[in-house]
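Hi everyone, sorry if this is the wrong subforum. Our group has a chain we'd like a structural model of before ordering constructs, and none of us has done structure prediction before. Sequence below.
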Amino acid sequence: MMTSTAMTSTNKIAIILAAAGSSTRMGPSCKKEFLPLESGTVLSTAAKAFLSSGRCQIINVIIPQGMENQAKQALFCDNDFNQLLQQTNGILIFTTGGKSRQESVYKGLIALQDYKPDIVLIHDGARPFVTESIIQQTVNAAIQFGASVPGIQPVDTQKLIDENGFISQHLQRKMMTAVQTPQGFDYIRLLKAHKKALLDNREYTDDTEIWGNYAGKIKVVDGDVSNIKITYKEDYKKNSQMTQIRTGLGYDIHKLQEGRKLIIGGIEIPSQKGELGHSDGDALLHAITDALLGASCLGDIGSFFPPEEIKWKDANSAELLKTVWEKVKSAGYHLGNLDCVIKLEQPKFLPFRELVRKNIAAILGVTLEQIFVKAKTGEKMDSVGQGNAIETWVSCLLFK
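Answer:
Right subforum, don't worry. Here is the predicted structure as tokens:
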């Protein structure tokens, strides 16, 4: 039998995170894998467990049609996940699921063919409390026996009933187990078993059943009662460690003057006029800074960078925002999203929008999907409409 060290160094392991379900039992418009949890979301917390174990090199997230951007946001809003993915040189891919869990997992297996994993783990994306011990035991047993699953002995005595609701068989509790995930398998053999299962006109609810029918026995390892799957709202409420969701609103206005640079979101935009201000006058970054400070109750931009202090003269607003964002993160907050509005008569902002979005995302270290910027004009009215000012509004969502 190989040692754990040998297993770690010689076996390529992929994890399929099944998150293609509709979460109907959570209530309308509630995708449970995307709910806030700990430093990120339910999905990012589950993914981090496997990256932290040091065993999994490839993560394949199975998602509903058209939800890749939301899934990316649910993962990369968690800075800890982002760092772990980089530190482990992990590979992250997304696969659109099918009409059933069986079809979704099969699609995930097909998507992994080019990566040629030795072992594949199948795990519920809504099961975020999996422990390192479960992961290590499941991987080791899958390597040794070909297939493995964590299980716990049922607390209640179990019975089989007939079609009329009468007990038909009394089961021995000590011979029973309630299986959890991750379920671990030899990749090639599981893929072959799934292909066979496609032809038998039957729907399977988990992969151990497919393996049992077409590939052999499954070794049961110790599960954990804390390794629950979030199915109902009550499951989430009882186990969530997320304590706060907070919103913030930022606003700024600057005069426009000839001879000044027009800087929006850290990007210089060609214009006859630019913002007049004590710093570089970037009204958008100032509003973002104020929105983040307001949501976190840490102050406002004036208290951090008083305009009467000479050291902030012509300061780079991107650096000011970075300073504030580090303090907000140190207070335990994570960004959900920013929604920004710019009111500017000239020049037209739309050609520069994607550059601005990318730059703001880079300043904050978040994904592009977490940042959006819209532009309006003053319709030739007020100071903006006359080309004499720029106004900005920003709303933000923070959580911890």
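For your construct planning: The CA atoms of residues 35 and 372 lie 21 Å apart. The radius of gyration is 26 Å.
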